[in-house]
Amino acid sequence: MGIVDDLQRARSAFERRDWAVAYEKLAAVDREQGATGLGPDELGTLATAAYLLGDTDACIRALQRGYRQQIEAKDTLGAIRFAFWLARVLNDRGEGAVGNGWAARAERLMVDHPEDVVERGYLRIHDFFRCLDQADFQGALEVGEDIVAIARRHGDSDLLAQGLVCKGRLLLYSGRVPEGLALMDEAMVGVAAGEVSPIFAGSVYCAMIEGCQEVLDFGRASAWTAALTRWCDSQPDLVPFTGQCAVHRGQILRLHAAYPEALAEFEDACRRYEASGSNVAAGLALGERGDVLRIRGDFSGADASYDAAAGFGYEAQPGRALLMVARGRVPGAVAAVRRLLAETGDPVHRSRLLAGAVEVLLAGDAFAEAEAAAGELLTIATGFGCEGLRASAAYCSALVALADDDPDRALPHARTAVRLWSELRAPYELARAKVLVGQAVRLLGDDDSATAELTAACRSFAGLGAEPARQGVERLIGRSTAGGLTGRELDVLRLVAVGNSNAEIAERLVLSDKTVARHLTNIFAKLEVPSRTAAAAYARDHDLL
């Protein structure tokens, strides 16, 4: 009765998502039964529990045993199922050669079953990802359609959810964004209703949110990130998918300019990826971390984070090119975005590059290219219909119009960007859009309104800790400072007041040490103070920080 009881406890624990207890009870039964061990069904459950606990080695061992048992029992379809999972788990772990070998073995076994069976749909999942790896988007779309058709014929909820997400992502990449998002919503209905098994549910959650982030559909991304967080929290021992969940929470926090909290999530994601053995996926988290550090003016930290992301095979662009511009390396940044745009063909991935490319190209005086990029982004955003992308396109259109000294054209775009970023509760982007409104109305002769817009933006940047943006707006305002300091001298004084050395100030402001020393000499003379300490005290006393 002990073995029967343990099996029942294992099943109950599995159903309530208590993976640790389910694994413990099944492993105990396996040990007690000695040479007989668990049967194929129990080995499949054991493998799933091990995977969800982050013990990939134990998962693979259980899957291999299940495969052998099914082969010995001449249950070919059962063996194909185990081979499918072995291929998936090994590929996810980065062991592509071994994983592809198991997929090939499953395909060979399928030759003996020419009839229509649901297992054929599962093997098509490997075909889908092979097409993606080869950038064969049309082929991948056709495979996705086949997966959905097989799933519907056999009433398989797992396969249907996976197929809908596969097909939906490819529709996004082909520019059919509303249609693709609708299919992904349909996949999520099954997940939210509890119709999809845990591993497929986690995969579908993450694929859905990634797709929403790619097209800047922040409304969907926020809603499904909250749902994924609840799903992960309901499984205290869960290891896979928690890293992705932390990244997605960080992305939403970054949108809302909660930068310290976003950084904490990205760092947590890296720890979770390391625990699950998915170090390659840490590149995205590191790239996102670099973007936040760049916005806050920690250029050295951003550079280090981008370098770490590159070490995992993730190219953090256009963030890295924007960092190069901030550090005065404009020609290199322009060359980078030109290469990226030449290499990127599908509208989704181009849309993620174009906004940054516009800023970099304008910094490099490549107006015609910037104008073309902004026009392309506006066309994509109109077709996609996602508010975040429309806001980004409106901002870029205003930026280009201002570069062309055309405030009449810039102002409507800038006001559209203000409205959309406000609706998305994105304070950093909202403040950036207000800067463009201020510049446009100034060119139209309304200096009072321009000062009001620019001052509001400056206060927002200061509150968010977005130092580079704040300093840029102060230069636009032309604000006079106590003691007659120039804008650059004020930048140096603020950094002195928070304890930066000359070398650190030079790094932050892209100046030479000699130039920083000259600015300090001028500051001491204008403020009539004898030392750095006295200058810092002056800054605090006169509310210059």
From TrEMBL:
CDD domains assigned: LuxR_C_like
Molecular functions (GO terms): DNA binding
PROSITE patterns (alphabetical): HTH_LUXR_1, HTH_LUXR_2
UniProt superkingdom: Bacteria
Keyword Transcription on entry: yes
InterPro entries per the UniProt record, alphabetical: Sig_transdc_resp-reg_C-effctor (IPR016032), TPR-like_helical_dom_sf (IPR011990), Tscrpt_reg_LuxR_C (IPR000792), WH-like_DNA-bd_sf (IPR036388)
Keyword DNA-binding: yes
Any one of the GO BP annotations: regulation of DNA-templated transcription
Keywords: DNA-binding, Transcription, Transcription regulation
Domain HTH luxR-type: residue ranges: 478-543
Entry protein name: LuxR family transcriptional regulator
Species in which this protein is naturally found: Kribbella sindirgiensis
Lineage of producing organism: Bacteria, Bacillati, Actinomycetota, Actinomycetes, Propionibacteriales
